[in-house]
Automatic annotation (TrEMBL):
Residues 17-36 are annotated as: Disordered. Pfam families: WKF. It comes from the Eukaryota. Residues 89-150 form the WKF domain. PANTHER family: CHROMOSOME 7 OPEN READING FRAME 50 (PTHR22306:SF2). This is WKF domain-containing protein.
Length: 207
């Protein structure tokens, strides 16, 4: 009732003073405000710590990924060379010591896959491989036929080898000319091997 009699610009001030006078002044409000501030500070600190941890993890993860990639590449190189040695040894044992030879499907698959590559299957082992495939049967035989057929069907570079060596490179650019001729010679080796393998498989039919 007192506030109603006073002017309008004084009423809000008086009502606030009355409300504040009605509250118990025991310091609880100040403590609550302090607790809220400390909670906010603690939350911000925890967020900052988490952010720093994430950044550190990203840095370490990048380094670890690079290290893992290098290790994986090294393992691949080692595994390829080791598998090659095992496959070549597998062929030699079949040829030289057949009594102690044991069939290994994985090594046979590797030989079929790399039969046309002179780097993976050298000349001496390829001669043994030509004897080995005479008794090849089933899906392995068909896979080898398919690979060799694809190689012989795509022999355009092999038939035009002299023209490519002269025509695609300038006379002054000997390095590019050498590379083109080298690639064609490697291609011709694979097609020659494919033709030899197909001839052997056509002569020897396994039921």
């Amino acid at each position: 009732m007192v506030a109603a009699r006073l002017p309008k610009f004084i009423r809000p001030v008086l009502t606030k003073s009355l409300e504040s006078s009605g509250r118990p002044n025991n310091g609880n409000d100040i403590q609550n405000e302090g607790n809220i501030k400390t909670q906010r500070v603690n939350k911000n600190l925890s967020k900052l710590k988490k952010y720093k941890k994430r950044q550190l993890k990203k840095r370490y993860s990048r380094k670890q990924l690079k290290a893992r990639k290098s290790k994986v590449e090294e393992k691949k190189i080692k595994s390829i060379s080791e598998t090659q040695e095992e496959a070549l040894k597998y062929l030699r044992i079949w040829h030289d010591d057949y009594e102690n030879w044991k069939f290994k499907k994985l090594l046979q698959s590797w030989l079929i896959k790399n039969a046309l590559d002179k780097k993976m299957l050298p000349h001496l082992e390829f001669r043994i491989f030509k004897r080995y495939i005479k008794k090849l049967a089933g899906l392995a035989r068909q896979n080898l036929i398919d690979r060799c057929s694809k190689a012989t069907d795509s022999q355009i570079l092999d038939t035009k080898e002299p023209e490519i060596c002269v025509g695609l490179a300038d006379k002054e650019d000997l390095s590019s000319k050498h590379l083109v001729c080298q690639n064609n010679s490697e291609y011709s080796v694979s097609t020659k091997r494919a033709k030899k393998i197909l001839a052997i498989l056509s002569e020897t039919s396994v039921q």
